Amino acid sequence: MSRHALVIGAGLAGAAVCAQLARRGWRITLLEAADGPARGASALPVGMLSPHVTRAPTPLSRLSALGVDTTRGELQRLLPQGQGWQACEVDNLGHDQGRWPAALVRPGALVHAWLDEAGPALQARWRTPVHGLARTGDQAWQALDATGSVLAQAPVLVVAAAFDSLALLTTGEGLLPQAHLPLRPVKGQMSLAALDGEALADRPRRDNGVFVPRYDDSGLPPAWPARIWAMGSTYTRGDASTHLSDEAHAANASSLQALCPPAAERMRQTQARGALLGWAQVRCASLDRLPLVGAAVDTVALNDELARARGRHGRIALEDMPRLPGLHLCTAFGSRGITLAPLCAALLAARLEEDASPLEPDLVRALDPARFAWRQARRQVQVR
Ligand SMILES: Cc1cc2nc3c(=O)[nH]c(=O)nc-3n(C[C@H](O)[C@H](O)[C@H](O)COP(=O)(O)OP(=O)(O)OC[C@H]3O[C@@H](n4cnc5c(N)ncnc54)[C@H](O)[C@@H]3O)c2cc1C
Prior knowledge:
The chain is an alpha/beta fold. It has two domains: 4-38 and 113-182 and 287-380, FAD/NAD(P)-binding domain; 184-284, D-Amino Acid Oxidase, Chain A, domain 2 (2-Layer Sandwich). It has helices spanning 12-23, 59-78, 107-118, 164-170, 246-259, 261-272, 299-312, 337-352, 361-367, 371-380; strands at residues 4-8, 27-31, 47-49, 85-92, 98-105, 122-125, 132-135, 141-144, 150-154, 156-159, 183-194, 205-207, 209-216, 227-232, 236-237, 277-286, 292-297, 323-331. The strands form three sheets. Strands 3, 4, 5, 11, 12, 13, 14, 15 and 16 form a nine-stranded mixed beta sheet that branches. Strands 6-2-1-10-18-17 form a six-stranded mixed beta sheet. The protein has a three-stranded antiparallel beta sheet with strand order 7-8-9, with no helix packed on it. The longest helix has 20 residues, at 59-78. 47% of the residues are buried. The structure holds flavin-adenine dinucleotide.
C-alpha cells in the first residue's frame, strides 16, 4: 500500500496523526476548513493536562495516565516552557481529592509544532472544507468539495474533524448510519482576563471546572494578553454554537466562588469594568465518553455477516467486525484532547503500520470506533 494519507481536520487530533505518520515516513495531505491550524476546540487559550484519577482503574483512568506521559513527552521535546505550556500541580477539591502533577497547555502551540516538524512530508491546505467522501474503484478515498469535485485522494483517509466528522461520515451516500457514530456537541465557555501582578492563588484548583490563577505564554495569539488568569469551562450538551454568553460567565463565576472566593470577587470586579474576556468552542463527545480511534465499520458487509451469523447462531468478536479498508477515525476527545490525542494518534499510526500496539488490547477495544455497531449487533446475534 502507498504510504500516503489524507487527514481531515487540523486540530490536536489531525495534527497529532500528521506528526506520527510523518515520523514514520508517510506523505500526508491535510485538509482544513479554517484559514489555519488549531482554529476549532484546539484554539483553547489554556487547558489542563492531568490524570483522570478514580478509586478503581477504568479505561479512561488508565488511558489518561498513559496519555499524560505521552503528551508531556511531546511538550518537553518540542516546546520550551512559557511558550505553549507550563508544568504545575493541581488541587482537586471535589472527587479524587488531592494534589496532582499537571501542566497548563495551549493546544495550538503543540499543533503548530507538530505540523512544522512534519516538514515537506506534509501538504496542508487551508480554507478547504470537505463536503463529502467517496471511494474509487481502485480503493482510494476521495475528499469532495461542495460541487462534488475531488479535492484530494489517498489510499488512507483519517477523519479528525471533531463533531463535523458525524456529518462527513453519515450524510449524502452515508458511509455509516448515525447510530454507529453516536457523537454529540458539548459547548464550553471559558472566562479569562489579563493578569497584572500576582497570581490569584498558589496553584490551579479544580472541582466544577478548572481555575487557573496565572498562565504566562509569550506565544498567545495577539488577541490575548501574554499573562492571564482563567476559569472554565461550562458544559452545555447538545449545543454546537460558539457565541459568548453572560449566563456562561455567571456559571463560571459561581464555580469559581466555590473554588476560590477572592478570585470570584476579582472576576466580578473585572466584569463590572468591562475587562472580562471569554472564549467559547465546541467539544465533540461520544456516547461512552471515550474517543473513537481506528478503522471504520463496513456497514454493508456487517449486515451480510449478521444475516449469516444469525442463520448459524454464530458469534462476531469486535476485532472481527468488517472494516472499510483505509478509512480511519481519530475523534471524540471531549474534554481530554490534550491528554489523549497524542497517545491515540500513536495508536492509530501503529495500527496503520501493523506495528506493536502501544496500548493493552482491552484499551484498543475501548477506543475502537466499531464498538457501537458491535453493541448493536450483539443484540441481534450472540457475540463474544
Ligand atoms: C472550553 C473548552 C475547554 C477545554 N478544556 C480542556 C482541558 O482543560 N484539557 C483538555 O485536555 N481538553 C480540553 N478541551 C478539549 C480539547 O480542546 C479538545 O478535546 C481538542 O481540542 C479536540 O481536538 P480535535 O482536533 O478533535 O478538534 P478541533 O480542534 O475542533 O479540530 C477539528 C478541526 O476539523 C476542522 N474541520 C471540521 N470539519 C471539517 C471539514 N468538513 N473539512 C475540513 N476541515 C474540517 C475544523 O475546522 C477544526 O479545525 C476543552 C475544550 C473546550 C471547548
